[in-house]
Amino acid sequence: MLTKNVVIAHRGASGYAPEHTFSSFDMSHFDMRADYIELDVQMTLDGEIIIMHDETVERTAGLPGVIKEMTLAEIKKIDVGSWYNKKFPELQREFYTGQTIPTLDEIIGRYGAVNYYIETKAPEVYPGMEGRLVDILDTHGLLTPERLHNKQTVIQSFSMESLIKVHNLVPLMPLLLLAKKEVLRHMTDEDLKQINDFVYAVGPSIKDLDQPLIERLHRLGFLVFPYTLNKPEDMKRLIDAGIDGAFTNYADRLRTAFNAENSEIFDEQDSM
Predict the structure, then answer these.
(1) Looking at 10, 29, 149, 167, which residue is catalytic?
(2) What's the pLDDT score for residue 174?
(3) Cβ contacts of residue 111 below 8 Å, gap of 6+?
């Protein structure tokens, strides 16, 4: 079970390649050896789970289109790689052009039984998303007792309601609560203890995270994985303050900052 120096590749290697594309995930997983692939899920008009941060395709495709109003066939026609070459000419690669939006099925088909952090994005927009997500994970064998115990398949969300739905479907599912600035700081210990009954980790914003808050969250039983840790000075500050891992667009930088290049993903005694 990986609980220390955890490198979570935020939308893949999104600091170097177009987010949520195979090029981005390939780089973070095969080249940088991040501990987890992190991705956001949305749901199409015809009920397919796709990998996308926004509810529209405008930012990453430069086209109008609301995902919940589009079929998978329509979405598969969209190029979500070209924008990156235009926005970041110093990082452009010819093969980024033509990258398409992957489905969750395609991601698992490509990377197999690796470690996943999956965020239910805007779950209130997609009734039944949690059930569809769980079905796909189960079909691919990612909800075995061993994987759940080792926290290899983790669901995360800013929505407590969504996490509760997942918990009701799979009581042993490892869950992480994402929290915007100030949210965790202003929650009472009692409220946090109640959440810790089924949420094992929290993902605070780095904007207000400090050592006293990290220590408080640890004392209440949580692992602490802040988002999004990209700058060297922030990495040093929060690693020194005691974080357990982090979401990052630069998995290579964070691995170096943790000085954990040879860390093992799992402890064999915890693999039962």
Answers:
(1) 10
(2) 98
(3) 25, 29, 37
229 in Cβ contact with 254 (< 8 Å): yes
Q: What is the pTM of this model?
A: 0.93
- Per-residue model confidence as pLDDT tens digits over 194-230: 999 999 999 999 998 999 999 999 999 999 999 999 9
Residue 7 has pLDDT above 70, yes or no: yes
Give the up-direction half-sphere exposure of residue 178: CA atoms within 13 A in the CB hemisphere: 19
The number of beta carbons lying within 10 Å of the beta carbon of residue 54 is 16
Active site (annotated) includes residue 167: no
Q: Is 10 a catalytic residue?
A: yes
| Nearest in space to 119 (alpha carbons), one of 56, 77, 79, 178 | 178
* Pairing outcome for strands 36-43 and 49-51: antiparallel
